[in-house]
Amino acid sequence: MTARRNAVPWLVVVALILGVTPFEAQRTPTFTSRISSVSVDVSVKVGARPVANLTAADFRLEDNGVTQTIEAVSIEAVPIDVTLFHDTSPSLAGKIDQLKNDIQRIARLLRPSDRFRLLTFSLGIDVTPWHAAGEVLDLRRVRVGRISAVDDALIIAMMERSEPDRRHLIVALTDAVDAGSAVGSAAVRDVASRAEAVLHLVRMEPRGGTRYTAGQWLPISGDFGGADLLGEAAERTGGNVHEASSTRDVVGAFRQAFDDFRQSYVLRYTPQGVDSAGWHQISVAVPTVRGVSVRARQRYFVAPRSR
Amino acid sequence: MTSGTLPPTVAALVALAALAPAPATSHAPVDPPQSAIVGLLQRYATGVYDAPVATLASVPNIQAYVRMFRQDGPAWADAADDPAEAARRRFVIAALVLETTEARLQEDWGDMRDLVEWACLLVRTDAPGSRELAWQRAALAVIEGAYDARFLSTPPPLKEGEKPATPLMFDHAAHARDRFPDESRFGLAEAFIAETRAPREPLLIPGPQPVPGSRAASLVAARMRQRTEAAIAALAPWLDDPEAGGEAVLRTAYLRFRIGETPEALDGLGRATGATDAFVRYLAHFLIGRLHERQGRRAEAESAYRLALDTLPGAQSGAIALSTVLFLADRPDEAYAVMEAAGRVSPQPPDPWRLYGYGDYRRWPALKAELRRHAAEPAASETRLDRPVRGPR
Per the CB < 8 Å rule, is B111 touching A212? Predict the structure, then answer.
């Protein structure tokens, strides 16, 4: 599953992303200014085109209905951790060599400061350690999987503490049809509401499978309505749903999701006038530019001080 | 010679051939030399196992090797100095067929399954013995791993008195059962086949269903009930078996879970938590958690998932289920900690929840070791089994 992490960085990360209360009590005052801030990824577009050169003055951000002062706006500079979940279930893995080629091409799109890990199916969900951009990926073990546990894979991808000063992007290339997960698609949607990462879902058409595949155990009747819930999950994180109708589109769809994320703004603010513990509803707008579509995480959660 | 000197028809064919695209030499399978399989069999017979299997796992043209197994294998066995060695060689062929099949299970099952049946005939040439028992156990594990119930057994008719829809089935499970009628794993395999025909769990989110009270709804319900009862009946003889009893209890309880018989399911799962087999104990706790979670009892679900992870630390399904329960209870730090603890377990244990539907495939590593042990034994050491044996079907 996930690689071992140093405990200190993730403590700071949670503070950065989710809020601060637990750590104000536990950590030294040196960190106070950092741990009290919240980071929000915001994508601003007109049509498909990102809107550039916005400043803090262009944004209006409300936290639980209270307008906040945006302290910093950054774009592009923050390194990105990319989790690529490539559905290798029988319905999608008709051409495994093509699939591996896609993964290598996707990995080459990253910047030097970015990192990359891969989730695929076998008899379980295989998770690689984090790779630095440019590192050669060993894909010899990637094969046609025996499970289609899409929901479980998304839970693993999201259940990852972000590191300080890094952003976490999850791109899921899948037909979004789950069979046999330990959890359901409704749970994925609900976890997404609380997750730190931004999830982009690239819905792929089945590749037809292989001619002689073995059968697949399906413990649960097919969760065909789950695709809509997974789309909702992506939107709750501030991500989006993309379509890829052919193999050629896969890398393109990833590039679109990656560029979308890379060109999104990171707004930082210190919540004022709201209770820190509990759920926070976020609303972001860009009133200075007409006709823009704004996508951002909709909620975040801060655990009570006693925990 | 030019085309001008050829008869017109031949000249036209030559011209067409010239226009045709050149074969894609980089990807076109090339037939291997005819003796290739014999070389691999000889190596396997002398105790070199991994290399021949790796070779056969990676060849692009497995169909050619399938043909060679059939054409060259028996001649290699018959060339042995004495009948006992010939029998051992036949076992070596059958063992290598199984290992190759397992290595290519996902991608090439359709190419390999006839060969498994052919290998079964090969090992059944001799009287039943410990060597064949090891092979039949391993073969059932591989076939169950392929999740090909139609290969294992002819499907029963949907209605009473109706003939089976497709008569050309291998009935492979019956071969093993006929040769070794007392073997509990083979009895459990037949129950497993019945279970594959029973209904799955209902959706976590209700999907399209027949209108309640309609004729379609009652027909579906009756068929599901009938298939579930058939599977439960097939498991019943094995419930008290020292070797297979724990798994039979677990599977019975999960069948009851699937048709909504919650108290009976919980009772059975509770008993299965006391099994000696860790696979059974893990799944019993995991399914208790799943059942509680479906009924909204999150605290009970959390306890059960924790017990599952105590049984098999690092198991993916338990870690995912438990961390999700915690995360949705607004306890993210505990949820992250569960996933991180699972990630630190190396190597990751095989996950019983993922393997549940593949029967004895979970036992493949041990069964493969047994195959190799028997393949290495001198020809004269085969143990004949003192068991009632019926002839091959």
Answer: yes
Q: What pLDDT is stored for residue A100 in this prediction?
A: 85
Per-residue DSSP letter, B362 = G
CA distances from B354 to A116, A182, A209, B244 (A): 26, 9, 20, 20
Give the closest-approach CA distance of B390 to chain A in angstroms.
31
Question: For an interface test with B, which of A1, A122, A127 has the most B Cβ atoms less than 10 Å from its Cβ?
Answer: A1
pLDDT single digits (tens) B245-256: 999 999 999 999
Is the distance from CB of B149 to CB of B197 less than 8 angstroms?
yes
User: Does the complex come out with an ipTM higher than 0.85?
Assistant: no
Interface check for B330 against chain A (CB to CB < 8 A): the answer is: yes
What are the distances in angstroms from CA B359 to CA A20, B100, B263, B363? 49, 19, 25, 9
Cis ω before B347 (30° cut-off from 0): yes
Q: Under 8 Å CB-to-CB from B143, ≥6 apart: which residues?
A: B113, B116, B151, B152, B172
Give the phi and the psi of residue B283 in degrees, each rounded to 5: -65, -35
Please give the C-alpha separations between residue B380 and each of B82, B84, B95, B384, in angstroms, as whole numbers. 10, 6, 18, 11
Query: Closest-CA residue in chain B for A279?
Result: B330
CA separation for the pair B295, B315 (Å, rounded): 23
Residue A71 CB neighbours (<10 A): 13
Tokens matching residue B303: 């306890």
Mean pLDDT calculated for residue range B25-50: 79
How many angstroms separate the CA atoms of B92 and B176, rounded? 18
- Those residues whose C-beta lies under 8 Å from the C-beta of residue B18, and which sit 6 or more positions away, are none
Q: How far apart are CA B163 and CA A65, in angstroms?
A: 69
Question: Cβ distance B229 to B256 under 8 Å?
Answer: no
CB B258 within 8 A of CB B200: yes
How many CA atoms lie less than 13 Å away from B157 in the CB half-sphere?
Answer: 6
Q: Are residues B204 and A184 in contact, defined by beta-carbon separation less than 8 angstroms?
A: yes
Q: What is the mean pLDDT of each run of 10 residues along chain A (307 residues)?
A: 36 33 27 58 86 92 95 81 90 72 88 93 91 85 86 96 85 87 93 91 70 70 79 91 76 87 90 88 93 88 67
Contact A121, A96 (CB under 8 A): no
The residues with which A38 forms a beta bridge, in sequence order, are: A269
pLDDT digits (tens, 9 = 90+) for B216-260: 778 877 888 888 999 999 999 999 999 999 999 999 999 999 988
From the CB of residue A183, how many other CB atoms can be counted at a distance below 10 Å? Answer: 25
B340 contacts chain A (CB < 8 A): yes
